[in-house]
């Protein structure tokens, strides 16, 4: 069996030199801006991205980098591919009057380069990055809350055990489902680590909320997010539109950062991994398609509040019903 992981195949649709600051369509679709104030924009949450690195000088990203490390033996976690920079931008590109804005624009990135410029990485590189993320501690005793993995390959026992260790340390692991879909919801396509039962496996929809034809389907899909024609950061201070479940995954990783802040404010304590996962599941909208395709549904960060408001309204209306003081029995 191969000892290599790779980027899940994706498409580069367009590369742009500059972009006037905008909130990308995918960020709007998952309703991130509606919860920014309540979540303090994800501030204080560290997301570890295991990928091709990051453009360390990109204006939308450089203030968000809390640390980084190379595992590909180049000695530098600078992105020489583009994929990692794009993923990071969707998670947390800053609000700074230029470029794009991410889901959680005040969260922090731990950029771990475990894939080379060709998008390939030895399993030992991936596992080294996983172990580093699990054990990492920042300058102010920060720890990783979310690990984001937009890569795939065959299963590996050591990798699986590391992911299980991450969960025991209350780290949510978010993974791309893969882009081997055949357009049918009744067939299984499996890429790992996405297909491990312990991770949050993310499929892709387009900006019209339709399942992407390339999105893997299987029993482990947890939810779907925008993954077609996604605008984000790109190396060289550029921007690009890419498609793939790799692009859906960071929407969920960023959303987890926002939900963690909101829920911990509400509960007055730290969340467990299982509790953070539950918050994600509550923040999904059923698309009316197979569970093997959508899991719990489309990521929607306002849907839980909408359900709560509807429940309160129904309760109030029920209490206001005017019932007769005496029952009338009809005799036949």
UniProtKB/TrEMBL annotation:
Record organism: Peribacillus muralis
Biological processes annotated in GO: proteolysis
Residues in Peptidase S8/S53 domain copies: 42-297
CDD domains the UniProt entry points to: Peptidases_S8_Subtilisin_subset (cd07477)
InterPro entries membership: Peptidase_S8/S53_dom, Peptidase_S8/S53_dom_sf, Peptidase_S8/S53_subtilisin, Peptidase_S8_Asp-AS, Peptidase_S8_His-AS, Peptidase_S8_Ser-AS, Peptidase_S8_subtilisin-rel, Subtilisin_Carlsberg-like
Catalytic site positions: 51 (charge relay system), 83 (charge relay system), 246 (charge relay system)
Molecular-function annotations in GO: serine-type endopeptidase activity
Pfam families: Peptidase_S8 (PF00082)
UniProt record similarity statement: Belongs to the peptidase S8 family.
Database matches in PROSITE patterns: SUBTILASE, SUBTILASE_ASP, SUBTILASE_HIS, SUBTILASE_SER
SUPFAM superfamilies per the UniProt record, alphabetical: Subtilisin-like (SSF52743)
Keywords on record: Hydrolase, Protease, Serine protease
Name of the protein described by the UniProt record: Serine protease
